[in-house]
Task: structure prediction
Amino acid sequence: MNDKNKPQTIAQKILAYHCGKDYTSEGEIVNADVDIVLGNDITLPIAIEEFDKIGAGRVFDEEKVVVVPDHFAPNKDIKSAQQCKLLREFARKQDIKNYFEVGKMGIEHALLPELGLVLPGNLVVGADSHTCTYGALGAASTGVGSTDVAVAMATGKLWFMVPKTIKFIYSGSLKKWITGKDLILYTIGLIGVDGALYKSMEFSGPVVSKLSMDSRFTISNMAIEAGGKFGIFEVDGITEEFLKSRSDGSYKIFKSDPDVDYEKTYNIDCSDIELQVAAPHLPSNARNAKDLTGISIDQVVIGSCTNGRVEDLRIAAEILNGREVDRNLRTIIIPATQNIYLEALKKGYIEIFINSGCAVSTPTCGPCLGGHMGVLAEGERAVSTTNRNFVGRMGHPKSEVYLSGPSVAAASAVAGRIATPEEVI
Amino acid sequence: MIIIRERAIKYGNNVDTDVIIPARYLNTTEDRELASHCFEGLDKDFKEKVKERKIIVAGHNFGCGSSREHAPLSIKASGIKAVIAVSFARIFFRNAINIGLPVIASSQASSFIQDGDELEIDLSSGKIKDITKDKIFDVKPLPEFIQGIIRSGGYINFTKENIKR
Ligand code: SF4
Result:
């Protein structure tokens, strides 16, 4: 068979396209053109240093480098102020079009899709491990190191090894309150934190084809938590609807060939999947929420690049409406972007949150990485809609994080302990 | 053509980035200082061994753990010329190549080679020869592109040279 006619996965096709070929084989190394290079206030300062060493002078394309100070911004201390200043000066000097200052800024992985900066078929790299989020749009996107981002900013190219692909087929029907977060926590629990090491994860099946974009972003976001390189959804009507107002439709859609040879296929019946919580200290410690309801907590965080979107805030508002958060805990809600914030405001969610005793913040990564805006003290426990629960992730090494979706987080805020929505509604 | 002829230091499975270079030394990017702590968590004799032997041979999942570029940097700065392992963790593999440290995945060679064996690696043809035991292993050579990065001493130098041309 001519190489050209061999069946290929989405990952193979996107990489082939970006290096001007018809076909790439799994394991092959290609030097490919990237569509977007992303950096933030933590990773970019190092990449800028390496970039200067190359001596290219200018970035390869001032429209394709995206700079988002989101981790410790608005500046949490003097050190982070210096880092953000470095980014600002670099962006000015390089005439970077997509630099997002505090006030316009959002958490990078919620912001880029919202603004239509990533489109189907794109090849995207970012110096942030959750760059895999854009797989929800049918893009191949992945996190890389600082040297990689320096080279990509200078040349617009980066080397990639073409990954093998694992397919996940979700069928059956979803129980009430189940969202993308429960599906991905369940999946990581099934395959482990290195279950997709170096692989492209392809999410498909009848359940997925009805899933909202917000839930799809949540799933792709956590591909890295199973070691995955990409976490890709095929473009369908729901994707196209999302993109309608965000692009002129001139993107390229890639689909895996039907007879492609997957490394592995998982058939997951969703009918029995309950609300999930990942217990400390690995995202793969997925349990049924109802089995953990005795555990008392000190803080609830609803936000992050995983679950800080409108769907998440709507679910939280539905549960918090007319109820008060438990007096023994803090609840912090962080819309992931300014637009999400505004929409939540218009829909009345923000009023509901404030009336029930939640703190609502301008977009920031903040507590997700134990940066600011909700750092945990020794011995404290949080339920959080974020993506990592490693030792010390949200603060003191002896604090604990339980990962959940928005409904369990909101219900737990009301109950003062891990709770399911049915218990408080 | 890149030929490396050195003796082997052998380690086991899952050599993680914390034993390669503990987090408490990440406040520097200075090569010599990183090298002075390399493998501190795994093998206190490494500093002596590396004077005579400059190829590491290891098991599964070499370099697992964090994404710190300091891990391959400290290995390279110690004088190690190449790492052969059954398999590598993804980000370590990328970072190693980007800083110009040859990494070769071969389960056959890694299992066969013993501590102290004299080896000859031909990165262009992909041959690993165990001179001590007179046995040759064919591995898929690293793609020409990656060999180019290694020849240049890393991705930054490689990029610099290609921009000039
Ligand atoms: S919200 Fe958390 S996981 Fe997402 S980019 Fe920020 S720090 Fe990383």
Summary: Chain A has two domains: 8-273, 276-424. Residues 8-273 of chain A form a domain with the Aconitase; domain 3 fold (CATH 3.30.499.10). Chain A touches chain B at residues 27-29, 31, 50, 53-56, 129, 144-148, 150-151, 154-155, 159, 194, 197-198, 227, 229 (CB under 8 Å).
